[in-house]
Amino acid sequence: MYPLQTLHTFGFPVHAANVQLVTSLQDIQQNWQEIKRQHHYILGEGSNTVFLENFLGSIYKIAIKGISLRETDQDFILKVGAGENWHQLVEWCLSQGIAGFENLALIPGTVGAAPIQNIGAYGVEVEQFITSIEYLCLASGTIKTIAHADCEFAYRDSVFKQALAGQIVIGYVTFRLCKNWVANANYAELRELPKPTAQDIFNKVVQVRQLKLPDPRKVGNAGSFFKNPIIDKALFEYLQQRYPSLPSYPIDSQKVKVPAAWFIDTLGFKGRSVGGVQCHVSQPLVLTNNGMGNGDELLRLARQIKQAVKEHFLIELENEVQLVSNTGLIRV
Ligand code: FAD
Ligand code: EPU
What we know:
This protein has 332 residues and is of the alpha+beta class. The chain has 3 domains: 2-62, Uridine Diphospho-n-acetylenolpyruvylglucosamine Reductase, domain 2, CATH 3.30.43; 68-208, Uridine Diphospho-n-acetylenolpyruvylglucosamine Reductase, domain 3; 214-330, Uridine Diphospho-n-acetylenolpyruvylglucosamine Reductase, domain 1, CATH 3.90.78.10. The chain is 22% helix and 28% strand. The radius of gyration is 20 Å and the shape is globular. Residues 9, 41-49, 62, 82, 107-110, 112-114, 116-117, 119-121, 168-170, 213, 216, 221-223, 322 line the site of flavin-adenine dinucleotide.
């Protein structure tokens, strides 16, 4: 049995039957039929994954490296290995004078996982830069390329979490960053910055994130546990009448995004624990492991929150993190 405690940021002391390091798509292509037959899980740095209990199959930890850069008159084109660290890529780009990723600074994890849930923060989503993705298709054993238009990117969602879920191993992501950079500083704390450079935005995002979010190297967590719900306007208007302070972000004429943290906070969950798992005291959308928690306690606390939000606000929260049971993904 292989320990998984240091392979996911929630840090539960569970094990897997097998863990293999993958340094190229060809590594995994050789055995694709065998992999498909068994319980398996494709892993980056485990910062959006919680292993709730011992895993009965094989974990494939993606360590495909490499950054290649070319330029056109207007753009920088980067092809990056799935196993590269996301934040290091953001820093490297800035050091090369390539701007664009700065709003996404300090998001943990790998480049290969970034398109899966279309990572986003501070008014930017990674899909804005993705042009194509090279992956191994576990249905056919062939290496394919998918264009941005076919990735069905949405808020914390993509085709890789829907029709292609569990069927692909991403090897490379290709990004286009425009040389004619324009600051994206309309979101929350970034508005304070007068005429910011990309480095100013990077610094501010890092500062705010370090203040708000627990550092997974010190306290086990996987970032936001639930997605921010997108609800119908009619339900939003009903809730707004009863709770005039409810914040909101319009999506279109029919839909409104509302912050899950506000509902969880309003229901008094901040600081509440089940065993060693706690609803974080300053950012209640984050659940944490004090080092002694386990998967059962996490599910109990998450279900309490989900049920209370449903009862009081008629909203069904959906987990954002990938919860892995002994054979594969489950929902709260
Ligand atoms: P993992 O947890 O290892 O995997 C995540 C999913 O991707 C799994 O389904 C896995 O099977 C799949 N996967 C991973 N690599 C591959 C691959 N090469 N091919 C196919 N499938 C693959 N997310 C945000 O969007 N915005 C934030 O602001 C943010 N803040 C965070 C803050 C903290 C403190 C933490 C702990 C997490 C935060 N997250 C945030 C979540 C997390 O950082 C992202 O989801 C990140 O992309 C996960 O990368 P990973 O390599 O750790 O993925
Ligand atoms: N809020 C409260 N009480 C609190 C904290 C927040 O009521 O204690 C309310 C406030 O109204 C606040 C709102 O919630 O304005 C939003 O809070 P915050 O700005 O902290 O962001 P979030 O919606 O909780 C989202 C992402 C984060 C991302 C930040 C910044 C999701 C699920 N989460 O969090 O992503 O970093 O915005 O853009 O969309 C992640 O995905 O893991 C993650 C951390």
